[in-house]
Amino acid sequence: MGFRFSIRLQLMVLSLFLFTIPYLGYNYVWELEQYLRNGQEQTMIGTARAVATALHERPALFDSQSAYLQDVRPGTDLYAPPIPSPIRLDGELNDWQQVGELMSEYGSDEVIEYYNAYKGEPTSLSFKHMVGRYGQFLYAMFEVNDDVLLWRQPNSLSVETGDHLLIGLETPRGELARYVVAPYESGWVNAYKLSDNTATIRAVENALSIQGRWQETATGYNIELRFPLSMTTGGLAFSIVDVDDTVSRLKQYAIGTANTNQLSELGTVITPSPEIERILAGLKYADSRVWVVDKHKRVLARAGDIQSATGIKVDEKEAPSNSIWHWIESEWLLPIYYQILTRPPSDFVDELDDAYALAGQDLGTALNGQPDSLWRLSPDNKAIILSAAYPIFIEGNVMGAVIVEQTTNGIRTLRNRALEQLFHVILAVMTIGTLGLLLFATRISNRIRSLRDNTEAVIDDNGKIIGTMPISNQRDEIGDLSRSFANVLSRLQQYNSYLENMASRLSHELRTPIAVVKSSLDMLTHVSDADQQAVFVERAQSGVNRLSSILNSMSEATRLEQAIAQEEMASFNIVEVIKGCVDGYRHAYAQRQWKFATTDNSMMVYGSAELVAQLFDKVISNAVDFSQDSDEILIALEKRDKHAVLTVSNPGPLLPKGMKNQLTQSMVSVRKENDVQHGAHSPHLGLGLYIANMIATFHKGHLSLYDREDETGVIVKIDFPL
User: Fold this and answer.
1) Residue 143: inside a domain
2) What is the SS3 assignment for 444?
3) Which domain CATH number covers 662?
4) Element (H, E) at 172
5) Rounded CA gap, 100 and 291, in Å?
6) Selected residue with higher pLDDT from 306 and 647
7) Residue 634, SS3?
8) Cβ(191)–Cβ(183) below 8 Å
9) What is the pLDDT of residue 661?
10) pLDDT band at 575, cuts 50/70/90?
């Protein structure tokens, strides 16, 4: 038997095919994006490692004092970010707004020193302060809130008689240098260098390299200064001394970043390194943004632009042609696709665009000596940014880190293009699949319609079967249905023929006993002898008995079918039932030879033992009728594959050709008077094997008939499930 490709299987295969393509395509695109992201991450870590390696070989870039600090003192250790343009020293502070987030506030908690018995007195002065670098100059600003601005007295040689600014520097020779700014009025100012004796504040010379502007405001005053970076190696401190008493002109307290009179207490100032910036610029990372930070997370150098840092460059699509497909794609398909997909943003909010200090898990891990990477969203959730950090080692110590940043816009563009192609394929497959299903359904519909027409063609208006149906060769459900219809119609045709012939058969079977009864009754009226009358009465009774037997045989099947529906089921040993019946047959049919064989003494069958015995009686009766005296009837019971198989073999005539499957039907008999060796005058309506088959079917078994291999007789086989 060949492979049966059913309709259900066909539809299932087709459906799985249609659903498998988008599923596999989506997984492929997803895996591709993951591989690209992993590749981008590893590439960025490699880039950060390369930059860090280049800096490993230049320890002089990290020789500043601040680089070796274990801890940064907020407000004391100053950070001077690069300023985009030179500061106009006008006292207005407008040029500082672009880096204003780095300003530090100073107040009563930052009092450096109290003077002249003012210790413990409340302070009235506070200010905002920061420094910045442009070129080779360091700029400083102070936005001071002071309730009393007291200028230095005109023509006074003392710089302590009014509010003033003190500056402490560490010179390139490692010495302390002090300066003071003490103006007479608002305007341009210069600093004075103070004496090396820290016990006094005495100006010894003008310091023209320190220039600036002191501008009075409604709440106090502003100070802007500029001096060359070459004046200091990194040690720096500022303090503002407040003088409010217009009579005594005594100093009250000093508030600032650190004590300007002590070299060891000076804070450090770190500025972005021009040397490191030149290294980064020479690398020309056009598709990345690179940061170099010290171990205090302060930015030393930066290069590149995150807005254009895609990570993976994607070639632009070719200019669309004027074809219909490109028009459909651009005008219809892509707008629908991008209701689901998101395009990489051409612009997004970059919170680190003007940052001068960094933070993050990846940076923290790198400063602990291990490379790391981090995925993050931009503040507006438009872009995914990947950063990779790698530590910078100087003599075995972590002195900073390199951070490389990119967006995933390139990967997202590649993903979108892949998904566009996937959607194109899905659309094509769904279209072809729909057309295929439509054609398939049309074919099925035509076959069903043809089956209907063929069925109606073989039955006339009166319900009489007038022909035969063509048998389909298709190995699917419709083919099975067509063959079932043909088989049913064939059986109905046979049954109709049986019904048409049943009258003549019954007439043939009833004619003889009726004739016997009629003739016997007629003769009774013509004879008076008691002995002769007894003979005719006996003949009439024999005819009546034969009529009764015919009627009983006809109703037996109906009674048995009703009895089967009410029969109680139980497990029984079929070996004992068959063995008991065989012992009875040895006495009932003593003229026959009986042989019984079994492979097992116990075979449990679920059903009715009485019905099985009745089935066996019908089969044995049939075997006896078709055999002769002294013939051997063979009975075998064996176990095969969870089935009990009962076979009855008898010598006699072979099965009629073409009627093997009909002999188990009702009212079908092939007996002839000269074939019947026992009970030749008994009626035979063909119900024996019909009843036996009905009992076998009730037990979920099967009855079959076939000729002996040597063509000397017939074998009846019945199998019961165990």
Assistant:
1) yes
2) helix
3) 3.30.565.10
4) none
5) 21
6) 647
7) strand
8) no
9) 61
10) very high
110-130 average pLDDT score: 89
- From the list 39, 54, 57, the residue with the least C-alpha distance to 290 is 54
Distance of CA 47 to the CA centre of its chain: 34
3-class DSSP state for residue 641? coil
Q: Is the pLDDT of residue 680 over 50?
A: no
Q: Which of 68-72, 649-653, 676-680 has the lowest mean pLDDT?
A: 676-680
Task: Tell me if residue 714 falls in helix, strand or coil.
Answer: strand
- Over range 241-264, report the average pLDDT: 91
| Nearest alpha carbon to residue 116 among 279, 276, 249 | 249
Of the three residues 537, 560, 583, the one that is the final residue of a domain is: 560
Does the pLDDT of residue 195 top 70, yes or no? yes
Residue in 627, 638, 624, 650 with CA at minimum distance from that of residue 705: 650
**Residue 369 domain flag:** no
- 101 and 211 share a domain? yes
Residue 555 shares a structural domain with residue 576: no
Is 220 strand, coil or helix? strand
Same domain, 166 and 243: yes
Return d(Cα 645, Cα 600) in angstroms, integer. 11
Q: Which helix (H) or strand (E) holds 465?
A: none
Whether 526 and 572 share a structural domain: no
List, for residues 49-86, the tens digit of each pLDDT value. Answer: 988 888 887 776 765 545 545 556 777 888 888 888 88
Q: Do residues 506 and 574 share a domain? A: no
Angle at 431 between CA 421 and CA 323, to 5 degrees: 55
> Which pTM does this prediction carry?
0.52
One-letter amino acid of 463: G
Look at the block and give the residue holding tokens 């600036």: 212
The neighbouring-strand residues paired with 596 are: 635
- Number of neighbouring beta carbons within 10 Å of residue 432: 11
Mean pLDDT of 391-419: 84
The CATH number of whichever domain residue 157 belongs to comes to 2.60.40.1190
In angstroms, rounded to a whole number, what is the distance separating the alpha carbons of residues 178 and 626? 141
Q: How much is the average pLDDT of 137-156?
A: 91
Tokens of 241: 């001394």
322: enclosing H helix or E strand: none
Task: Look up residue 277 and give its DSSP letter.
Answer: H
pLDDT 10s digits, 539-566 = 788 778 777 766 776 666 666 766 776 7
Boundary-marking domain end, from 236, 271, 306: 271
Q: How far is CA 201 from CA 161, 235, 424, in A?
A: 11, 20, 83
More confident residue, 320 or 474: 474
Residue type, 195: S
What domain range includes position 549?
A: 463-560
| Residues 536 and 585 both lie in one domain | no
CA distance 156 to 666: 145
Using the Cα atoms of residue 62, residue 63, residue 68 and residue 71 in order, give the sign of their dihedral.
negative
- In the chain, the largest separation of any two C-alpha atoms, in whole Å, equals 189
> Rounded distance, CA 181 to CA 162, Å?
10
Whether residues 627 and 594 share a domain: the answer is yes
CA distance 214 to 231: 21
Q: Please check whether residue 356 is in contact with residue 81, taking contact to mean a CB–CB distance below 8 angstroms.
A: yes
Query: Which residue, among 549, 546, 607, 596, has the nearest Cα to 573 in the 3D structure?
Result: 607
- Note the pLDDT tens digit of each residue in 443-456: 888 888 888 888 88
Q: Which of 514-528, 563-577, 587-601 has the lowest mean pLDDT?
A: 514-528
Question: Are the beta carbons of 29 and 340 closer than 8 angstroms?
Answer: no
pLDDT score at 514: 81
* 711 shares a domain with 648: yes
What is the total count of domains within the chain?
3
